[in-house]
Design brief:
The chain is mainly alpha-helical and 331 residues long. It is built from 19 helices and no strands. Helix 1 runs antiparallel to helix 2, helix 5 packs antiparallel against helix 6 and helix 7 runs antiparallel to helix 8. The chain is elongated and about 95 Å long.
Length: 331
């Protein structure tokens, strides 16, 4: 009779609610979920009643994955993200075949709340369980940024990754180096950084080392290391930004006795940084203005000549581009 009445009055909360309860009582959870979903589509105010209905049903059907998934979705709609993730963890533990849906739900939660660290914890467990170690390490990196108390957890999971796949040693080392640096343990970070020379993470290791030197107030040593890195990888934006901060500190800090010279160095660096930024964006006129504003007396001016030539070339002024290249070769 309820089914017949609900077919005639699909918006009736009273009939739909009663029908869902009868389905649950009659051990037909899938039909109950279908009735609840129809009600929610037409009655947004039914959301919390539906949650209560599912919570009651889970007392009878604690291992029914479909109910756990359904109530998880309602928790997300009600902004109860932690409870949603707890349900998703139960699903993951009970039915491995539904893991792709769990991951989709977790990513949806992270779109709404990017710093929901509990979601990253579950994703880490899932990815490591699936032997998707690169994705697992990415999740651990996010956890280390959000949760300052995650050190032991991250170390434990990285140790597990290394047991399973020793060739990921460099990936785990760079993450631990970053983690120790953020937790103010520079010596441990430095020890790991030294193992990364000659690897694909060498540039990042240099950047971490420069930050360690800066943390020890060795600003000039940090600056020199960053300049070496920039000379090797001129388009490494993070190195430029870090170096600019150090120049600013040197200008207003312990180098005031050479204030004019340091300000000129800082100004030159800022022009170089802005010029490269404009060049990467394709704004060749502004890039040219920055590079042409730099001092011609610098030992590094040959690089500026190259970039000025590149700007003229992109602007179709090949004669001026050639003249700067000739000037570059003559020096």
């Amino acid at each position: 009779k309820c089914e017949f009445l609900f077919s005639l009055m699909p918006n009736s909360v009273a009939i739909g609610n009663l029908l869902a309860k009868l389905y649950f009582k009659n051990y037909q959870p899938e039909k109950a979920i279908e009735a609840v979903e129809r009600l929610i589509e037409n009655n947004s105010g039914f959301l919390r009643t539906a949650i209560t209905l599912y919570e009651e049903a889970l007392k009878t059907y604690p291992d029914t994955v479909s109910i756990l998934m359904a109530v998880s979705g309602l928790y997300v709609s009600d902004s109860r993200y932690t409870e949603a993730i707890e349900c998703l963890r139960s699903v993951f533990e009970k039915d491995g075949s539904i893991v792709p849906r769990v991951l989709v739900s977790l990513k949806l939660i992270l779109e709404k709340v990017p710093n929901q660290v509990v979601a990253y914890y579950l994703m880490t467990d899932i990815y490591i369980g699936l032997e998707a170690y690169d994705e697992g390490i990415s999740c651990l990196r996010e956890i280390s940024k959000i949760d300052l108390d995650s050190l032991n957890y991250v170390k434990e999971k990285l140790g597990l990754v290394l047991q399973k796949k020793p060739e990921l040693k460099d990936e785990t080392s760079i993450l631990m180096a970053e983690l120790f640096l953020d937790r103010n343990e520079p010596e441990k970070s430095l020890a790991l950084v030294k193992t990364l020379n000659g690897t694909i993470y060498e540039n990042k290791a240099w950047l971490i080392k420069a930050k360690i030197l800066k943390s020890k107030n060795k600003l000039k040593a940090s600056r020199d290391l960053l300049l070496q890195l920039i000379e090797k990888e001129n388009y490494l934006l993070e190195a430029h930004l870090e170096a600019k901060q150090i120049y600013d500190e040197l200008i207003v800090g312990d180098c005031k006795k050479k204030e004019g010279q340091d300000i000129q160095i800082g100004f030159q660096f800022e022009l170089d940084y802005e010029g490269l930024s404009f060049l990467r964006k394709g704004d060749f006129v502004k890039a040219l203005e920055c590079f042409q504003g730099m001092s011609t007396n610098s030992e590094e001016y040959w690089k500026v000549c190259f970039f000025i030539s590149r700007c003229f070339m992109e602007m179709g002024r090949y004669d001026l581009a050639i003249s700067h290249l000739v000037r570059l070769l003559s020096n």
